[in-house]
Amino acid sequence: MDRQALILDGGLGDGADTRGAGRIADDVLRCVGWQVARLTLRETDIAPCLGCFGCWIQTPGVCVIDDAGRDVARQMAHSDLLVYLTPLTFGGYSSELKKAVDRSIPNISPLFRLVKGEVHHVKRYARYPRIAGIGVCSDDRADPDEEELFETLVHRNAINFHAPADGACVISVTEDDDVMRRRIERTLRRVIES
Amino acid sequence: MSDVGERVLLLVGSPKGLEKSNSARLGRLVVGMLEERGWSSESAHLHAAIKSETGRRELFEAIDRANVVLLAAPLYVDSLPAPAIRALELIAAHRRASDVKRMPRFVSMIQCGFVEPSQNDTCQRILRRFADCTGFEWVAGVSLGGGGRVTKRVRTAFDILGEALDLEILVPDGVEQRTRKPSMPGWLYVIGGNMGWKRLADKNGVKDQLRARPYERRGS
Predict the structure, then answer these.
(1) Are B74 and B117 in contact (CB under 8 A)?
(2) Is the pLDDT of residue B150 over 70?
(3) Rg, chain A, Cα only
(4) Of A48, A90, A118, the CB nearest to B81
(5) Looking at the partner chain, which of B74, B83, B88 has a beta carbon nearest the beta carbon of A90?
(6) Where are the domains of chain B?
(7) DSSP H or E segment with residue A115
(8) CA angle A35, A39, A45 (to 5 degrees)
(9) What is the DSSP letter of A175?
(10) How many CB atoms lie within 10 A of CB B57?
(11) A79 and which of A6, A9, A34, B61 could share a cystine (Cβ 3.0–4.6 Å)?
């Protein structure tokens, strides 16, 4: 069966910050036999989550806002791997990536359960995609603390979205393509092979 | 505008706005204490402010006038809601471009729907980085669980926080110690929370569909 990856490109402005890394991630995945869909979020009209919980208690599993956010949630549910590609924004995601992540909560249940002693939401589906985070920093080198924060954020998201595996890396926009490729490939392989 | 006394700016990062959100209600508890001590206050809803050039300019000007900026927001998937992140991106770009010299003190107040306030930790770290990178003086990150339930302990913590902000002293560890403790055991929260969700779904006539799988993959 084909394995499907969805690259969520959260680049800001003209997208120059994430373009190179997105191209490399796309190529790396295709080279190992994955089908890849790439979504440029700054060009996708997704309204912000209303925080109304309608997707849980009015139309369970479907957001009450009828826009591209619904399609993204569906695509996410149908993927085996999500690649969160983002300019590193104070160690976290850009607003463009986050608008898609916020609108994906219909894919989990409102009901709670304990996971390693912590309260989290129950699965809605039997299978969930793996999550790989690629953060792009504008400096020559990311602050190690910021890098660790990004990895933690991706891992926390993986817990909340029941991802069977996750991993993240931070690359610099100034790195040459070979270095960037090695780091992205290492991260993606770690996530898809674990 | 001439400065009269100290000024606190409440930034609300909830889609539900200044009137209806839990975040605004919680932020106002601290803002109210400062007002009682003679402070003036302003508030802004980030989702609304970022929509127009005028809104953005007014937001930047309000920050420039403030001695304390208190950001109150709900936790959305381990971080802030997307429009609140957009506001941070814009504030950062503005402060870099305009070479702002003043460093308002910055307090973040994040509340989540899980019982453990510690689930806000990642978001608080992001906000601290934002403050450090954009010329704010980070003074406190207040994390609340249980949807922002205000217990007696939390109220005491807010009193301590308000006093520390007013006196311009370090925020005592007691604030964090009082707010970080879950208000009930996790297992009890799971039982009560699940009853609540089922009741709400029942009211909407969808209790039987609570576990619906509209995007189920073929072959799953």
Answers:
(1) no
(2) yes
(3) 16
(4) A48
(5) B88
(6) 7-183, 185-220
(7) strand A108-115
(8) 150
(9) S
(10) 12
(11) A6
Tokens 């929260």 map to which residue? B189
Number of Cβ atoms within 10 Å of the Cβ of A172: 18
Which tokens belong to B186?
């996790």
ipTM of the complex: 0.97
Contact in structure between A72 and A63 (CB atoms under 8 Å): no
**A42 token code pair:** 């700054």
A151-182 pLDDT per residue, tens: 999 999 999 999 999 999 999 999 899 999 99
Query: How far is the C-alpha of B203 from the C-alpha of A88, rounded, in Å?
Result: 42
Alpha-carbon distances, residue A178 vs A21, A171, A182, A183 (angstroms) = 11, 12, 6, 9
Place of tokens 């791997």: A81
Is the full-model pTM beyond 0.90? yes
Residues of chain B contacting A153 with CB distance shorter than 8 Å: 78-79, 122, 126
Which of B114, B115, B197 comes nearest A110 by C-beta? B197
- Residues, chain A, total? 194
Domain map (residue ranges) of chain A = 3-193
Taking CB atoms and an 8 Å cutoff, what residues of chain A touch B220?
Answer: 125-127
- Among all chains, which residue has been given the structure tokens 């050039």? B53
Report whether CATH 3.40.1350.10 matches the domain B7-183. Answer: no
> Which of A162, A60, A107, A133 has its CA nearest to residue B209?
A60
- Could you tell me if B59 and B87 are in contact, meaning their C-beta atoms sit under 8 angstroms apart? yes
Q: Are β-strands A81-87 and B40-45 bridged in parallel, bridged antiparallel, or unpaired?
A: unpaired
Third-level CATH fold of A3-193: Rossmann fold (3.40.50)
